[in-house]
Design goal:
By secondary structure, this protein is of the alpha/beta class. The protein contains 18 helices and 11 strands. Helix 1 (about 20-30) packs across helix 9. The longest helix has 24 residues, at about 175-195.
């Protein structure tokens, strides 16, 4: 096999939860040596605060959330508050090409690990900071997680039914948008360093990332003065458009019809029911004006099929349709299986754990998932002694002095 695309790249994470670590995970999956730094007394929050835990038994090495964000990494512990802890952290940074952190703005500076200080030990360093609202501005230090960011960005105001309450998007949605842009920005900075010999500081605001996914709505307001409102499952210029009940308990299929030609194909699949030929459903505008009745008629038909049967029938004639998978279906989806998205690796405490491969493939240098997520401090001796070059005596002294937990 060819060398992996990022083999030789050295990355250090002063990061926790999702936004920082998942950025590092993508680099590790393609061969970068990524070292996840934690404190023994205050580990990554995903280890202790968020289920699920293997067999529903909490433990610092049993968290599924931590696991899926941190495969292929080395896990080490440094007590930054111990005398000598900051100096040791700087030694690790001197070894690295990239530092990833997602603390509240100002935290790294207060620790003595800000970019300007770290450049004194590594003048070509690339440092990536990912936080809620960037490093500067009146709201930069506001605390929050994904639910707050999706709301600030505007997603929550657009999600839900017109006559019902707002609906939060599930999970830290904005964090994962930030991950994608984070990987891009790091690769751009690495290219800049390759060409110029200089590193740089990357200030990523997850809040601003969210705007990228709302561009059409923002433009609509800016150009036409129109404010979008909640539409439930409907679409401005498609009908029918939504999720429809199918045979089975809580089974659904999503379908969309954007043109009159597609509507004709749907009618044919439904065996041309008499109601579909009525003038109130003839054009897209007619269907939009009678959407409640249209959906009711279609629902009466879709309940006769399983979602899989319905998807196959509709896609066969060119009508957009897709099964609404349940979460458990993600592990058995044949398309995921074909592309080997879930890759099982044995973990010392969780047993066989299925880690998620990257959502893209490089033909000559594919991702390799070959190491489980690290237990807390699992690679201390291996990293400090074998990789960083610390003597065994100094390593033991650091443990005795509480620098390495």
């Amino acid at each position: 096999m060819s060398r992996q695309a990022l083999e030789g790249l050295k990355v250090v994470e002063f990061a926790a939860y999702a936004a920082g670590p998942v950025t590092g995970k993508h680099l590790a999956d393609f061969g970068a040596t990524v070292v996840h730094i934690e404190s023994g007394g205050r580990p990554d929050g995903f280890r202790v605060q968020y289920p699920p835990f293997a067999e529903n038994k909490p433990g610092v090495n049993r968290s599924g959330c931590f696991g899926v964000c941190n495969n292929n990494k080395y896990g080490i512990t440094i007590n930054l508050k111990a005398e000598g802890g900051i100096d040791l952290a700087k030694e690790v940074v001197a070894w690295a090409d990239v530092v990833i952190e997602n603390f509240t703005p100002g935290t790294m500076e207060r620790l003595g690990l800000g970019y300007e200080e770290l450049c004194k030990v590594n003048e070509k360093l690339i440092m990536f900071s990912s936080c809620n609202q960037g490093q500067g501005g009146r709201h930069a230090t506001h605390p929050g997680f994904g639910s707050q960011l999706t709301s600030l960005t505007g997603f929550t105001n657009l999600t839900g039914f017109p006559d019902g309450p707002l609906s939060l998007l599930f999970g830290p949605y904005i964090d994962f948008i930030g991950v994608g842009y984070g990987v891009i920005s790091i690769m751009a900075a690495l290219d800049y360093r390759r060409r110029t010999g200089f590193g740089q500081y990357i200030d990523l605001a997850q809040y601003e990332n969210g705007l990228q996914f709302l561009a059409p709505i923002i433009l609509e307001n800016n150009i036409n003065g129109r404010v979008w409102e909640r539409m439930g499952n409907r679409h401005e210029y498609a009908a029918p458009h939504g999720v429809f009940p199918c045979k089975g308990q809580d089974r659904w299929c999503a379908l969309s019809v954007f043109t009159d030609a597609e509507w004709q194909k749907l009618r044919e699949v439904m065996d041309e029911p008499a109601w579909a030929a009525e003038s109130k459903f003839s054009t897209m505008l007619d269907r939009k004006n009678n959407e409640d009745e249209l959906e009711s008629k279609i629902e009466a038909w879709t309940v006769g099929f399983t979602p899989e049967e319905l998807m196959e029938k509709l896609q066969a004639v060119g009508v957009r349709a897709g099964v609404v998978n349940r979460i458990r279906d993600a592990y058995s989806d044949p398309q995921y299986a074909h592309r080997q998205i879930w890759q099982g690796i044995e973990h010392s405490e969780m047993g066989l754990f299925h880690y998620q491969a990257p959502p893209f493939e490089l033909s000559e240098t594919p991702a390799v998932l070959d190491r489980p997520s690290p237990c807390l401090g699992e690679h201390n001796e291996q990293f400090f002694c074998d990789i960083l070059g610390m003597s065994k005596e100094r390593y033991q002294e650091a443990i005795t002095n509480g620098i390495i937990a």
